[in-house]
Amino acid sequence: MTDGQIGINLTRHIHEKQKQYPEATGELTGILNQLAFAAKIVSREVNKAGLVEILGLTGEKNIQGEQVMKLDVFANDVFLNILGKSGHFCVMASEEEEDVIHVPEGYKRGRYAIALDPLDGSSNIDVNVNIGTIFSIHRRVSDGDEGCERDIMQAGRKLVAAGYIVYGSSTMLVMSTGNGVHGFTLDPSVGEFLESHTNIRIPARGKTYSINEGNYPYWSIGIRKYIDHLKEKDKESGRPYSGRYIGSMVADMHRTLLKGGIFMYPADKKDPKKPHGKLRLLYECSPMAFLCEQAGGAASTGNGAVLDVEPTQLHQRVPFFAGSMEDVRLVEDYIRRYDDGD
Ligand code: AHM
Ligand code: MG
Question: DSSP per residue over 258-326, as a string?
Answer without folding.
Answer: HH--EEEE---SS-TT-TT-S-BIIIIIHHHHHHHHHTT-EEE-SSSBGGG----STT-B--EEEESHH
